[in-house]
Amino acid sequence: MPMNFSGASFGLLRVPTRKPGDAAITLTGPNFDDPAESGRIRAYIRQIVADPFVREAIEVSSGSLARDLAKIEDGGSVPFSRLRRVAYAVTKYLLRMSSRPTPFGLTAGVAVARFGGPSGGEPEFRTGLPAVKAVRPAMDWLLAAVHEWERLPDVRQRLLLVRNDLATSRGDRLILPYVRAAHGKVTSFEVSVRDTEAVRVCMDAAHRPVSHAVLVAKLRESFPGVAEDTASGLIDSLLEQEFLVSELPPPPDSADPLGHVIDRLEADHSRTRALRDIRTAIGAYAASPPGEGAAGLRSLVSSMSRLHSCERPLQVDLRTGVEASLPDVVLRELETAVDLLWRMTSDEVPDHYLEYHQAFVERYGLGCAVPLGELLDPARGLDAPATYVLPASSRQLTHRSPPADTPRRRRLAEAAMEAIGSGHEEVVLDDESIAALVRHDGTSRPAPDLDVCVTLLADSMAEVARGEFRLVLAAGLGSIGPGSFFGRFTAMFDGMADRLRQIVSTPDAMERGAVPAQLFYQPNESRSGNVIQVPTILPHRVAVGMYADRGRDGVLGLDDLVVTADTHRLYVHSNSLGREIIPMPFNMLNPYRQPNVARLLGEIAFHRAGGVSAWSWDGLADLPYLPRVRYGRTVLFSARWLPGPELRDSSLSWNGWREALRAWRERWSVPDHLEVVSHDLRLPLDLTAAPHQRLLRRELERDRSAVLAEPPGGGSPGTGWCGGFGNEIVVPLTGRSVTPPATPPPGTLDWPRRRHHPGGEWLYAKLYLIEEHQDELLIDRLPALLERIRPAIDHWHFLRYRDPEPHLRLRLAGTPDTLSGHVLPTLHDWVAAGCAAGSLRGMALDTYQPEYVRYGGEKAMPAAERLFHADSESVVRQLRLLRDGMLTLDPQFVAAMNFMEIARGLGGDGWAARYLDRVPKGGHHAAFQQHRRAAVRLIDPAGGWKALAAEPGGAQLVESWRRRTEALADYAAELESTDPRARLDIVRSVQHMHANRLLGIDREAEAHALAMLRGVLDADAQRRRFAG
């Protein structure tokens, strides 16, 4: 089996700045909860922070804690409650610094790991290199000052301004759907101003960067007699509300944010001089070795606070003084483990994204390009997907219950119970268990690109070289895009940006000519700006909701982007480039903190290939204990315990709680050493030490969702290979591509916006009823309605849908007069009778928007709609045959036969070969293999259907296709000049709509029917090949 992932030749090595032994003092500390021990607690605190490195790390990370420490160190009076909090806090800091590799200030840093050994030499771990601090002002500190200065007349008149491309017109208002949080409060609502002619002049003039003075002149030129102060006041108001944005805030890719601001201020001004002094002090502090800069740091923070007060005014990252060269066997092991997880990952997409894709296709059709800003507008478009919060989406999500994979779940439950019952610490996956757990074979889907985070365990580098090591995958596995973990650390390493660019620009990653584009945006909270400070990596950039010159080469804005869809996913296109783009943020900001436009762009990029899920116990997460899971040398899942409710009982005495802990540990065989896990924070504890027991109790009471997990690998082997430090290595992996459905070509992106509202040439009714009654209505009740209205309509068709309530969509074509004067009253009476009888819940009229692009264009649409009519009539007959028992075949078999007829009639010459080439053998191929003999006998690629006609009801089934065959021929004639690739897309769309009518909304059943069609075509092709 080919490997589906290829690891980069480098990784980001993350290590804490202290070793586990450095936290030994925490095992024997005083009782932090006893006021009588205040003296010992003070001495304990002083002993911990006597390490200048630890003291400086705390100064960097928590200004309030540092101030409390200063009082304690000076012997000042401190209330016991605060002393207690400080003791717990410094204990956690020390434990974190000695164990957790996640970079944070000076508690942990980053280095480079290379694979393949240095210049062909032996693997090694190097120490003693210079440790380098990367220091810049925190963005919440800097932006607070910047936005204050923007309001000053002497500052704003020096600045270039540009239109915020998120602004959009709605009626007589100009709307801004997303603005920054103000004064620490999250702002997730839109703001608006009257869309006056003066506002439009101002916004139009600022489509490219323009000075304040030029905007004033433009307004006065357009409105003679307007005073300069009045014009300036309008501009200032638009700037204050962020309809205009200035160049003063540093962009996320600025290498010197403070220098960016200084260069745009008046040179000889007190604020500018103060910033230059701060910049100099930052440089001096950055140059000081870690552990020797606390005094300079305090002076620097004091200077910064005089300009603006902020809890953490500095962003400090650390490049540690180590490097690692590792053998390729480590990389191959990681690739193998991720490949297995990927084959275990379901192709199900999140509910909110699936619903949004379906809504897009329903509203706009396939291949239609919709401006991104319009799509996200709640009035003109779909609004943002459900669950989006900046701003809050109006869309509601109906949660689906994913199809239960009962055999897989049973196999997992057996493995967990066997481990628990036998006392085994781990489940080891073998070929048999893997075969029962994988969901696809890895050949039918493109593998995604991602960063993977892994801990390497070995007692020496020699053991690593011999392959005697363990890998432990992070609980969350990694990121959804390659390079995301590197983010703000990229600039700390020479050549790193070039390496990341090469990874995301490989032919496999950029199939079909897609262009990777770096995504920049303005986060809602200024503090988040620290996470998204990433240097320029890609030549193309998407900049939305922020200052940018979108007329420059390579700079794409919201107005340039359109969204389109095929049957599988959404795409983003650039109008100016005429190509698909892949937005890449290169940061780890939580999606819930991203503006909706940025989050949607990121999700569209992610779902190009889907993701790789970490190990899942598939419904067993509530078990009190889950064992470690290992595959080869890789731990896929670390053992985990759920603390019993007695451990969260604050009413227990200390002795009572310790007894509860002892009993719980004995019952579940809990080891001495484990980690308390709260969200993504992990704190190592020794459960035999009373101070750690108290810390555990405190953490469980503070976070009711906290769980307990074993240390990496259960603590063995150790980390001797890297000098005893904890470690994580982040490795970018590039996924193998397969031949995917082609991106809709840019030429198809223009779409007619013709809509048929009630009262026109189409009457579109939604008939609400429960899904189980839909076939009965179609078979028994609908024909009576059609018989009464047939003289008044030209044709009709139906679809099944959920929005989210299940309903049938009935579309009737005719003249406006007859539809309104005869058909609608008749429909009213029919629906009223159905509601009275309990077969219908109600009806709603809606606007019918034909999917012109999906079905070959406006000229071909009438023929397509006549085909929909013929298919609807055929399906009603087929449903009756199935219900009455005249046709005894499985409905999925019947659907596969219909798929064959549709493809034969519509696909054109050579369609079968194109179908096999374009549609890979997927995970549902087992449906064909299970029924191969019957499928090959009954599903006739030649169209004679002799074997089918001999089956009960077979002849009636073939007869039900007669009128549809004629409609297929007429429609095929309209598509004669259509590109064969696009024509096959149309075939698949018609097949999908047929499946909707015959099988209902059942993706699995449709996929099985398609798999049977493909299997028969493949078998026929092989027979012809060997026969000829």
TrEMBL record:
UniProt superkingdom: Bacteria
Stretches assigned to the Thiopeptide-type bacteriocin biosynthesis domain: 762-1015
Ranges for domain Lantibiotic dehydratase N-terminal: 50-696
Pfam family, any one: Lant_dehydr_C
Family annotation (InterPro entries): Lant_deHydtase_N (IPR006827), Thiopep_bacteriocin_synth_dom (IPR023809)
Signal peptide: none
Protein name, per record: Lantibiotic dehydratase
